[in-house]
Amino acid sequence: MTNQGPEAFSTERLDVLPLRVAHADEMAAVLADPALHTYTGGAPEDLDTLRARYTRWEAGSPDPAEHWWNWVLRVRADGRLVGWVQATVAGPRAEIAWVVGTEWQGLGYAKEAAAGLVAHLPADGTVRTVVAHIHPDHTASAAVAAAAGLVPTEEWEDGERLWHREEITSGTARP
């Protein structure tokens, strides 16, 4: 990865590609289910709103000390987009998040993508700590965080538990 943006990477079944505004058309259908907002609030965005969001994300953070790295998840077997992962990186800390469309949930794509993202982040040599915010009732997201090597902490923010993974120089995780 560079300061200009994320680099593509792959997992066993997914090509994880830097998010572009052009992905909004396909992603609008992936993200259309209101159930995706059960734990985060809000509602699905219409295509114009999603394009505007992707335009902001693609442009990156206005703060030069913070990087917005966003990727879409493309299933290699059929070429379809199924969700996204992101990392907001400030100094040695990355806050990660993920969404997989309802149609593709339960197939392990979120776990695979989140674990791939965590493995990919330290490759640039700057990210040492990875965190995610998980709603306490969202057991599927907790399982994704655990699969990515994060552990729950006693810290809470906006009603969500902070999950944490700290990398050490040997490449092994320390909770």
SS-derived structural category: alpha+beta
Strand content: 25-35%
Quote the average pLDDT.
91
Write down the Rg: 15 Å
Number of helices: 4
Low-confidence stretches: 168-175
Tell me, briefly, the overall form: globular
Order of helices and strands: EEHHEEEHEHEEE
Structure characterization notes:
Strands 1, 2, 3, 4, 5, 6, 7, 8 and 9 form a nine-stranded mixed sheet that branches. The radius of gyration is 15 Å and the shape is globular. Helix 1 (24-30) crosses helix 2 (47-59) and helix 3 crosses helix 4. With 175 residues, it is an alpha+beta fold. It has helices at 24-30, 47-59, 109-120, 139-147; strands at residues 9-10, 14-18, 66-75, 81-90, 93-100, 129-134, 151-157, 160-167, 173-174. The chain starts with 8 loop residues before the first strand and ends with a strand.
Compact overview of the structure:
The protein is of the alpha+beta class and 175 residues long. Helix content is 23%, strand content 33%. Helix 1 crosses helix 2 and helix 3 crosses helix 4.
